[in-house]
Amino acid sequence: MKIWFRCPHCKHELNFEDLSQDAAPCPVCTKMIPLRISDRTRRENVVEHCLICDCPQVYVQKDFNRTVGVSIFIAGAILFLICAWFNRLIEGTLVWAVFTVADALLYKFLPNVTICYKCQAQYRDFSENPNNTAFELGLAEKYDPLDKNAGAENPAAEWNSGR
Ligand SMILES: [Zn+2]
Ligand SMILES: [Zn+2]
After folding, report:
1. How far is the CA of 121 from the centre of ligand 2 (A)?
2. Which domain holds residue 150?
3. Tell me: the pLDDT tens digits for 100-118?
4. How far is the CA of 111 from the centre of ligand 2 (A)?
5. Which of 129, 122, 123 is nearest to 153 (CA)?
6. Torsional sign, CA 11, 15, 19, 25
7. pTM for this model (two decimals)
8. Are residue 21 and residue 97 in the same domain, yes or no?
9. φ, ψ for residue 62, nearest 5 deg
10. Are residues 104 and 116 in the same domain?
C-alpha cells in the first residue's frame, strides 16, 4: 500500500509505504506522526479507516488524471470538427466513436484510489474493501473540517462554497 498525505504538523506532502510501524517521524519537520494501522490492514492490505487522522470513513474513486481525460476529449472533438468541416461526417463519427471507446476502456482499467474525507490522505495499491464506497457529499460535510484549505482538492469544496 502506498500512502500520500500531508504531515499533520508542517503540512508537507509525504509518501509512505512501510506499514510495519506505529509511528514515523516526518522527514521534513522530524515530529512524530502516529499511524493508526490495524492488524487487518497489515494482514490484508485493505484500508479500513484513515491511518493518518483516524477518520472512520474513506471513499474510493478512479485514480484518473482529469487533465488527461479532458485532453483526450478535446482531441476527439477537434478531429471530429475537422472531419465535419470537410464534410466527412461518417469518418468524423467513426473518429468520435473510437475516442469514446478508448476513453471508456481507459477508465475501466484505471486503478482505484482511496481518499480520506477529512485529511484527503490518498491510498494506492491496496486490496479492495467492499465497505468503502464512492464519494458522498453528506459524509464529506460531516467529516470535512471548516478548514477550507484542506478541502481545495475535494470535489465537495466547490459545492459548499455557495453557502
Ligand atoms: Zn512535518
Ligand atoms: Zn484522514
Report:
1. 5
2. 2-63+112-155
3. 898 888 888 889 999 999 9
4. 20
5. 122
6. negative
7. 0.73
8. no
9. -70, 140
10. no
CA 8 to ligand 1 center in whole angstroms: 7
The answer to the question of residue 102 being in a domain is: yes
Identify the CA nearest to 72 among candidates 113, 39, 105, 31.
105
Paired strand residues for 114: 60, 123
As given in the structure block, the three cell numbers for residue 13 are 506532502
Cα Rg of the chain (Å, integer): 20
Bridge-partner residues for 123, per DSSP? 3, 114
Residue 4 has pLDDT above 80, yes or no: yes
**Ligand 2 centroid to 95 CA: how many Å?**
43
Strands (E), the chain: 2-6, 13-16, 23-25, 32-34, 58-62, 112-116, 122-124
